[in-house]
């Protein structure tokens, strides 16, 4: 999925972006018109397969640059058939290239499409002229139908290979809209409850939200208490306690009790709408992706035209018109970028399948080139560097005679009846460790501080460190909170619960530094949690960031001229993923984040970011090599075809030109296959 369906940023188009809007719908990455490589590849596939039989027949009945190859045959009027078939292919298979060329000329940036169109036009019209000349004047003029048909087929194949590799587009804004429920339960003045579409909610409406439902709009709780899971939206890992007077965000999930809320924001001012408009803004920013193949094709276009004009003038003056035309046509046909058309798509296809084997889905090939030159990687904390789940990270005895197992059994027992996330984590931990919870006679909630209960004739409390109020000599693991277990008022043990740092995070941060990429953690979580994780991993951080803050951070880094890779998983990351030069979504995250990104890590493992950087480096190297092989042939062949060395008896005959052309295409294909990742 390239980032979005955004059709407004046409000035930045590069590469093969200029195709038929009817032929295939254009999907851009966040306005990053990354080569427009996100056309609907089904249509390129269709174009290729429909053109294939016609193209093959033309190639079988037309000698290749004047030489009859094995499997080729001609018969009476076979050249007339070639004219008819080529005319159909010219208008059908050639259409996207001509539309692309028109766009390139409009932007005063002739490139691949202009070069292809030039080759197609010259080879087609000169060949038609050659056939007419044979029947009217009787002289044998060589035609180029073989080159014409093979160029169309190879370019369509190249496009289809790349389209298939980079996959389909998705729409982040659409996925955001789907976070909100379709209907809301509105309470009328006579306490009657009616179902109303969320789009018809007005400020001041009173809405009832049951446990487990999505909150339909931004509002303030006027009745009820609950815990709301806002992690998808804010990145905060813990469910947030909410009571009367607290604000809630539309799209978050109501955890426990039923609540009644008064709608405060709808439409454009709501949180989700603001995130949508940030994504829209990001889409309209031009990309820094430089399309090397496009650039090389642009140089070739100018060189071919210049060489053809010079050849025409020189041969016209020194020999005659007929010789001048032959050299000019040969020059322009030789310039056809057969190998260049496959140079990048074959590497992309190989790179994509290698990446997929590692759980890396690369949706935009320019992401690989940009990532190779990254200066800074902005990483979300929750769910990216940490697991995003609240877990027990350590149980510590504080009094002799108590083992970790006994303490865990007591804590799991006292928390057994609660559905609170912290309680649940403790019960799950005991279960995993195969520890049977102690049976408690009675358990009561201590408002705001914890729980108390009786077991075996003794009074126990499991309370927060703040509620306990005394210092205890325990190392608190990074990013975790501590609860203390007391027996008759005396601390006997503590339990640390936290959002665990993923195992591969530390190695990733080190690898980024080794590669000259600065890691920067950007999180919606609080200062304390952010600081402890950042210190443990040895990186800079910014905490308490809203989606707008993250967006501004990426924007600022880009304005400083830095190439930014953003890694995240939540709705709060989506605008920054769309804005960054390369957006990397962690696969366990939200659909919105996945739709906003160029690359998806399906395993949610930070170690995969290392693989992505390696893939970026190796793919970019292969692309450069293939461009050298693909274009090198043209740079050498064009002047020879123009007859530069003809005065000393060296000229590039069409036959030799054709063999070299095929050879460079084979070299490009073989080189792409050798792209590999280390195990």
UniProtKB/TrEMBL annotation:
<feature type="transmembrane region" description="Helical">
    <location>
        <begin position="656"/>
        <end position="677"/>
    </location>
</feature>
<feature type="transmembrane region" description="Helical">
    <location>
        <begin position="296"/>
        <end position="318"/>
    </location>
</feature>
<protein>
    <recommendedName>
        <fullName>P-type Cu(+) transporter</fullName>
        <ecNumber>7.2.2.8</ecNumber>
    </recommendedName>
</protein>
<dbReference type="InterPro" id="IPR023214">
    <property type="entry name" value="HAD_sf"/>
</dbReference>
<comment type="similarity">
    <text>Belongs to the cation transport ATPase (P-type) (TC 3.A.3) family. Type IB subfamily.</text>
</comment>
<keyword id="KW-0812">Transmembrane</keyword>
<dbReference type="InterPro" id="IPR023298">
    <property type="entry name" value="ATPase_P-typ_TM_dom_sf"/>
</dbReference>
<dbReference type="Pfam" id="PF00702">
    <property type="entry name" value="Hydrolase"/>
</dbReference>
<dbReference type="InterPro" id="IPR027256">
    <property type="entry name" value="P-typ_ATPase_IB"/>
</dbReference>
<keyword id="KW-0479">Metal-binding</keyword>
<keyword id="KW-0067">ATP-binding</keyword>
<dbReference type="InterPro" id="IPR001757">
    <property type="entry name" value="P_typ_ATPase"/>
</dbReference>
<keyword id="KW-1278">Translocase</keyword>
<feature type="transmembrane region" description="Helical">
    <location>
        <begin position="324"/>
        <end position="348"/>
    </location>
</feature>
<dbReference type="Pfam" id="PF00122">
    <property type="entry name" value="E1-E2_ATPase"/>
</dbReference>
<feature type="transmembrane region" description="Helical">
    <location>
        <begin position="627"/>
        <end position="650"/>
    </location>
</feature>
<keyword id="KW-0406">Ion transport</keyword>
<feature type="transmembrane region" description="Helical">
    <location>
        <begin position="144"/>
        <end position="161"/>
    </location>
</feature>
<keyword id="KW-0472">Membrane</keyword>
<keyword id="KW-0187">Copper transport</keyword>
<dbReference type="InterPro" id="IPR059000">
    <property type="entry name" value="ATPase_P-type_domA"/>
</dbReference>
<keyword id="KW-1133">Transmembrane helix</keyword>
<dbReference type="InterPro" id="IPR036412">
    <property type="entry name" value="HAD-like_sf"/>
</dbReference>
<dbReference type="InterPro" id="IPR018303">
    <property type="entry name" value="ATPase_P-typ_P_site"/>
</dbReference>
<feature type="transmembrane region" description="Helical">
    <location>
        <begin position="47"/>
        <end position="69"/>
    </location>
</feature>
<keyword id="KW-1003">Cell membrane</keyword>
<keyword id="KW-0813">Transport</keyword>
<feature type="region of interest" description="Disordered">
    <location>
        <begin position="1"/>
        <end position="39"/>
    </location>
</feature>
<dbReference type="InterPro" id="IPR023299">
    <property type="entry name" value="ATPase_P-typ_cyto_dom_N"/>
</dbReference>
<keyword id="KW-0547">Nucleotide-binding</keyword>
<keyword id="KW-0186">Copper</keyword>
<dbReference type="InterPro" id="IPR008250">
    <property type="entry name" value="ATPase_P-typ_transduc_dom_A_sf"/>
</dbReference>
<feature type="transmembrane region" description="Helical">
    <location>
        <begin position="75"/>
        <end position="92"/>
    </location>
</feature>
<feature type="compositionally biased region" description="Basic and acidic residues">
    <location>
        <begin position="8"/>
        <end position="34"/>
    </location>
</feature>
<feature type="domain" description="P-type ATPase A">
    <location>
        <begin position="178"/>
        <end position="279"/>
    </location>
</feature>
<feature type="transmembrane region" description="Helical">
    <location>
        <begin position="113"/>
        <end position="132"/>
    </location>
</feature>
């Amino acid at each position: 999925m390239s980032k979005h369906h955004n059709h407004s940023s046409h000035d930045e188009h590069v590469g093969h972006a200029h195709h038929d809007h009817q032929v295939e719908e254009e999907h851009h990455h966040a306005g990053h018109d990354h080569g427009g490589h996100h056309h609907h590849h089904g249509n390129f596939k269709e174009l290729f397969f429909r053109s294939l039989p016609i193209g093959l027949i033309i190639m079988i009945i037309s000698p290749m640059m004047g030489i009859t190859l094995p499997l080729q045959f001609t018969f009476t009027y076979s050249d007339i058939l070639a004219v008819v078939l080529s005319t159909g292919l010219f208008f059908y298979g050639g259409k996207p290239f001509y539309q692309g060329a028109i766009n390139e000329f409009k932007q005063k940036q002739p490139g691949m499409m202009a070069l292809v169109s030039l080759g197609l036009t010259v080879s087609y019209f000169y060949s038609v002229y050659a056939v007419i000349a044979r029947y009217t004047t009787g002289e044998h003029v060589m035609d180029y139908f073989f080159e014409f048909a093979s160029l169309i087929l190879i370019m369509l194949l190249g496009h289809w290979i790349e389209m298939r590799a980079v996959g389909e587009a998705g729409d982040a804004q659409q996925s955001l809209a789907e976070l909100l429920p379709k209907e809301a339960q509105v309470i009328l003045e006579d306490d009657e409850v009616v179902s109303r579409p969320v789009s018809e909610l007005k400020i001041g409406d009173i809405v009832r939200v049951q446990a487990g439902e999505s909150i339909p709009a931004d509002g303030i709780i006027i009745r009820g208490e609950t815990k709301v899971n806002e992690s998808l939206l804010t990145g905060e890992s813990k469910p947030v306690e909410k009571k009367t007077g607290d604000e809630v965000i539309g799209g978050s999930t109501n955890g426990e009790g039923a609540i009644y809320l008064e709608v405060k924001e709808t439409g454009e001012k709501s949180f989700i709408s603001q995130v949508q408009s940030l994504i829209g803004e990001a889409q309209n920013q031009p990309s820094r992706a430089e399309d090397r193949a496009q650039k090389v094709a642009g140089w070739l276009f100018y060189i071919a035209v210049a060489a053809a004009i010079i050849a025409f003038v020189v041969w016209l003056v020194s020999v005659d018109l007929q010789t001048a035309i032959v050299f000019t046509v040969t020059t322009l046909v030789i310039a056809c970028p057969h190998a260049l058309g496959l140079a990048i798509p074959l590497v992309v296809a190989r790179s994509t399948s290698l990446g997929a084997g590692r759980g890396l889905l690369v949706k935009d090939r320019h992401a690989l080139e940009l990532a190779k030159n990254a200066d800074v990687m902005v990483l979300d904390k929750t769910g990216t560097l940490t697991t995003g789940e609240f877990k027990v990270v350590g149980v510590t005895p504080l009094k002799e005679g108590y083992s970790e197992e006994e303490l865990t059994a007591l804590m799991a027992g006292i928390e057994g009846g609660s559905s609170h996330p912290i309680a649940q984590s403790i019960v799950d931990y005991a279960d995993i460790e195969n520890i049977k919870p102690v049976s408690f006679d009675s358990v009561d909630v201590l408002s705001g501080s914890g729980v108390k209960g009786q077991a075996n004739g003794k009074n126990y409390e499991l309370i927060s460190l703040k509620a306990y109020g005394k210092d205890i000599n325990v190392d608190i693991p990074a990013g975790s909170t501590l609860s203390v277990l007391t027996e008759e008022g005396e601390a006997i043990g503590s339990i640390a619960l936290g959002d665990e740092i993923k195992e591969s995070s530390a190695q990733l941060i080190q690898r980024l530094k080794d590669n000259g990429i600065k890691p920067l953690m950007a999180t919606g979580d609080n200062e304390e949690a952010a600081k402890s994780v950042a210190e443990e991993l040895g990186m800079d951080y910014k905490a308490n960031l809203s989606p707008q803050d993250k967006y501004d951070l990426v924007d600022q880094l880009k304005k400083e001229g830095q190439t930014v890779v953003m890694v995240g998983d939540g709705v709060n990351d989506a605008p920054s993923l769309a804005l960054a030069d390369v957006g990397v979504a962690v696969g366990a995250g939200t659909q919105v984040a996945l739709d906003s990104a160029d690359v998806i890590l399906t395993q949610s493992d930070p170690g995969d970011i290392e693989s992505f950087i390696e893939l970026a480096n190796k793919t970019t190297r292969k692309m450069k090599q293939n461009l050298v092989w693909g274009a090198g042939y043209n740079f050498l062949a064009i002047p020879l075809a123009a007859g530069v060395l003809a005065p000393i008896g060296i000229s590039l005959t069409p036959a030799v030109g054709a063999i070299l052309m095929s050879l460079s295409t084979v070299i490009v294909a073989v080189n792409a296959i050798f792209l590999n990742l280390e195990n």
